[in-house]
Structures are given as C-alpha cells and as structure tokens.
Amino acid sequence: MAPEQSRPPSSGFYPARILVADDEPRLLTSLAALLRRRNFDVTEAGSGREACDQLTDQSFDLALLDLNMPDTDGFAVMEKIARLQPDCGVIVVSGESSFSTVSRALRRGALDYIRKPFDPEELLATVESVLGKQSLIKAHELIQTRLEKSEALHRYIVNSSPDIVFMLDKTGHICFINNKVESLLGYQPAELCGEHFRVILDDRDVARGTYALRGPDISADNPRTLEVRLKTRGNSKATRHFEITAFPVDPQSWPQTGVTLGGSTRQPARYYGIARDVTERKEAEAFINFQAYHDLLTRLPNRALFKDRLELAITQARRSEQKLAVMFLDLDRFKVVNDTLGHAMGDRLLQAVTHRLEKCLRRGDTLSRFGGDEFTLLLPSIHSPEDARGIAKKLIQALKDPFQLGNHEVFVGVSIGIAVFPDAGNTMDQLIQNADIAMYHVKARGKDGYRFFTDSMSIDTAHRLSLERDLRLALERDELRVHYQPQVCSRTNQVVGLEALVRWQHPERGLLYPADFLPLAEETRLIGKLSERVLDQACRDVGRWINSGHPTLRLAVNLSPSQVEHPRFVETLLERVRAHRFPARNLEIEITENVIMSDLEQISRKLKELADTGVRIAIDDFGTGYSSLNYLHRLPIHTLKVDQSFVKAIRSGEDGACIVNAIVAMAHGLKLEIVAEGVETDDQLSYLKSLGCHQVQGFFYGPARPAADISRLLRRDGLAFASTA
C-alpha cells in the first residue's frame, strides 16, 4: 500500500464523499478500506439497489461502480446518478473489458474505466485525478456563475440608472448606450449604436456639443461637462434638457471588447459618460425667472423688466439719435367693477383688457403691467410724436366696446399720459414720472383720453402735491364750508330748493371754489370723505330750515362719479340721511350723464332703489354728455338741469337759444321738471319764462351764500325773492 497522502484538493474543506458499489463483499471491503486510508468519506453498497437507495438519501462527489450486479446493474445506477446527482462523477471498476461495454459506460457518463483486478496505486491516482477535475469544473462553474451574476448586476445597474449611460469612439460615434435612452428620448439602443451622437442633439446645440469633445484638456480629473438639448424620437421640436459629463477612456487600464466597438467603424471606445435629464430643473428655473420679470395674471412684463428694456432702448435711441415714447395707462372705472363684481371678475377684466391692448402694438413694443390697473408701454424708435399719438388713439378705441364678464356687460376707458424722449426726459425715471404726470392731467380733464407731457405740467404737479397735503389737513381741521345757491320758481320768485356747494377756507389762499380742488380730491380718492362732510352739514342746515316752517324746501347735492359707482353707494347715502333724520322726499341728488352711461345697468338699479325711498334724481349739465332719450325714459329721472353754457347763448335773435328750446320741449314731453343754471340777466329769465322753464338759479338771484345768510333770507323774506336782484 502506498503511504497516506494529504486530503485531495477536490475535497475543499471537507473530505470527498465516495460511494463504492460492488456485489463481491471481499472486494467491496478492501476497496473501501483503501479509500478511507486516504481520508475519503466512503459509503459502501453491496448491490445496485442498495447504491440507488444511498443516492436517494445522501449526496456524493464520486461513485465507484461495478457493472455486473445481479439485482440492479451499474448502468442503472449511472442513470439514477445522472438524474439525481449530475455533479457526482462516476468511475467504473469492473471485470468486463470488452470495447462495447467500456464504450457504453463512457457514453453513459463514466469519467474513467478501471479493469479488475486493479492496481491500488493506479486506482487511487485515478480517483484523485477525477476528483481534481471535478474540483476544477466546480470552481470554474462557480467563477462563471459569479461573473454572470456580476455582469447581470452591472447590466441592471447601468440599465436601471436614472441617467443615460453612453460610450463614444474618438470620432463621436456611439459605441454603447443603455436602455434609459428609450424611456427618456424614445430611441432603441440598437438603432443609435454606430451613429454619431449629433443625430440626437438639438440643432441649436450641435456646434457646441461636437466642439466640447475636441478640448485638449479633457481628463479623468477634468471631465467635460455641458448642458445641451436632445431631440426626442420622431419630433425634432420636442426637446429635453440634459447635463452631460464625459470622461476619457484609458485603453491601457481597460480592454476593449466587441460590445464597445462602435458600429461599422469598429473603433475602440474613447469616452464614457452620463447624460442626466435636467428638464424639470430648467423648467423650474425658467418659471422662477418668468415670475421675477413678469406679471403672472396678465403674463405681461412687470415693472422690473419694463425698466430694463426702457434703459436699453434709451441707450440705443441716444446712440442713433432717435426718439422713443413712454406711455402710462390707467384704466377708468376699473375700481367700480372690482368692488362691485369681486376680484375674480376684476382679474378677468384685466386679462381681457391686456388681450385687446396687445393687438394694438407694433413688433418690438413692450406693454407691461405696472401694478393694479396701471400699465406702461414702451414705443422704441418712433419717428415723431405722431406715431405715439396714433398708438394712443388705437388703444383708446380698442377699449370702447363693452366687456362681457359672465352675465355682466361692463365698460372701461383708459387715460394715457405720453412722454417722448428726449424732449420729456433723458432718463428712465424722468420718462416714467412725466408720463404718469401727463396721465393725471387726463384724469383731471374728464378721463378717457391722452395727453403729451409739457414742462408746464411739472409746475402744476408741484402745486398739486402741496395742495393735496393742504386738502388732507383741511379735512382734519374742518376748513371746508357749505354754501347754498337758491333754486327759484320762475313764475312766483319763491325759493323751492337750495343747491349745496362746497368751499374751502384755505388759511393762506383764502376762499377756494370747487374747480380749484375737486379734481384733486377725485384723483387722491379724498372725494368720498369730502362729500360726506358736505352732505352731513347740508342735512343739518336744511333740515333745521325745514323744521322751522319750510317743509317743502328741497336740498340739491352734487355727487361725484366715484361715489355713485361705489358698490355701497345707496346704503351709505341712506344711512347718512337717516342719521340726520332728514326727509328723503326733500333730497335731490344731481349726477351727470357720463356717470349714468359708464354702467347703465348698475346705475339704473341704484337710482331706482333711491327713487323708491322718495329721493329725487336730477341730471346735471344736461346736454353736455351722452344725451339719450332712451335712458331718460328708462330711469326714474325727476329733473333736468340745463347747463349754463346753453343759457349764456340766449341772445335776442341768436340761434344758440334753439338748444335750450329743444331741451325744454324734451323735458315737457317727458313730464320732467327743468332747472336752468347760470341765469344772470332779465333777457335770459324772460326767455326761459316764455318757454315754460319751471325753475332757475344763478347770479340773477345772487351767488351761493353761507348758511347764516340763507337763514336771514328765510327769516326776512320767507321763500320769496323780489322781482329783480
């Protein structure tokens, strides 16, 4: 016997398990003993059936089988081994030596064939050789399995990456690209391999993208990083933004394979990298940038962007010695819509106004929302102020038609101030400020128009600022006074009413008349507080005279457009009247035709509510605005006041009297009372009497007087005036 040797390498940490099957007990025992002396774990089987049972219960690394066993021969045992334990090697130890038997055994999977009687050393050498081969095969299979798992893992990682992973050859052709390109761009990896990467670059980025890989300084420590737009499959206009990072491939540290050879060129990979989809980030950045420079409601440039463009336009105009114009636009009657219908409707109106205004612009003009209902418009490179005038007229005309907001039809106008560079200012701030000043002059003259800035407006503006400050103080110091002008019956010379007129007792400028400060009160929104003071005082004064024996005396008060247009106009007016216990039937409110026509539906509803309480309605300055028989018929009008400009035209034999004739005839036909304003002469009074004009007022009976004078008049003469002033 050969001396014992160390455990065979095939056994690993445990001795190899060997099944020995032979029907000769003596041979079986000696063979098992021989193997055990080499530290093999041996299991004996005295028959083929017993060997099959052992195969069912245990696992083996090697089986030594005799072929000729009476119950179950060695071939049957080999079949069971192949079925149950295919990794178990088989060595045939048999007395059969015919070629057919040996060939059959080898075909059935035997790894070697030892003929009986056998040489012990030869048998051991054969066993160790077979076990060694088995060990190498298992190690190879293990390594192959690990490689396959590793490759599957890396393939999974690469294809599951949220980024596109790619490899390029030195000419920029794609050697490899992962499956992510399909979900992000719609391309199959196979159709891109071999193509130059420019095929998926947006046309605007082709030059920059191809140039990026030519840089001489690209290295592992200094990869090339750039942002480009990539086209999606089938739609060249649909692009997504990607951040690409590319590294060079070191050919000495990484061997090339056929997988990474690009297309028909078969060139080795030179670059590898990733392309990360940053579309959402770019869109978020674009949205943030849009928010910073645009108004989100109207989508127009905001104040900051407008100033940037104006600054640039001024620089270009100065260099080319051209003119430009800045317009300041303020919507008329917008606040009424916003307060009446709510902010949601106000927002819809601003969007609709924006849509109409944009249709009037030239290419290159900039319309911005400056804030609230204010807009600014930049007209670069105009030839003369007439260009700006034409645009202003188009803007005004564009807003003439009503806007449909749900079930409501509303009207708005626009007041436009225009400043032309360089005549009205050399800087951005000067142009905007002067356009704003010109716009306020439009407001002061009745709104819904345009004006160019002139130097004289600056003086008026400085005066306006100091006057505004004084007016605010006047409300605090109670410097406002109420004077009353009698309204006299033309037949009896009796006082039938008193028109309340405000005066301002200015501490430095003396007594100021409405024309001196009411437009400013309108602009600064002080008109509401001012009117409340006048109404309160008039209700107290006239209410006292009514209670002292003049029950039919009528109080006439003028109301501003902003008051009438306010959503709570009716409630506020009636609350103040009731607070003073003033009889509603003795109150007559005077409004102009322009106020009525600005929103006929809303004003009609309000006037009917007032008329139902007994309040009388008078149309002031009739004939100077939108005269319309339609609204006179529809509304609860009680009185028409003939404007003094028509009364002044009354001269013997002059045609101007025809207008008065028409107004008086119209009033008679509609059964309305008539009050003629501005009566100053006997001729005027006589002419009006001949027409049947009911009431007159004017300097013929004296100017408006303080309450104390009216009290003395009523005590001395009752309600009657003398026949002459």
TrEMBL record:
Q: Which GO terms describe its biological process?
A: cellular response to nitric oxide; phosphorelay signal transduction system; regulation of DNA-templated transcription
What are the residue boundaries of the PAS domain, all occurrences included? 150-202
The UniProt keywords, alphabetically, are: c-di-GMP, Phosphoprotein
Q: Which cofactor does it need?
A: Mg(2+)
| Domain GGDEF intervals | 322-455
Reactions catalysed: 3',3'-c-di-GMP + H2O = 5'-phosphoguanylyl(3'->5')guanosine + H(+)
Q: List residues, modification 4-aspartylphosphate.
A: 66
Residues annotated as domain Response regulatory: 17-131
Answer yes or no on keyword Phosphoprotein. Answer: yes
Q: What class of enzyme is it?
A: hydrolase
Ranges of residues in domain EAL: 464-718
EC annotation?
A: 3.1.4.52
Q: Which GO terms describe its molecular function?
A: cyclic-guanylate-specific phosphodiesterase activity
Please report the name of this protein according to its UniProt entry. Answer: cyclic-guanylate-specific phosphodiesterase
Q: Which organism is it from?
A: Marinobacter halophilus
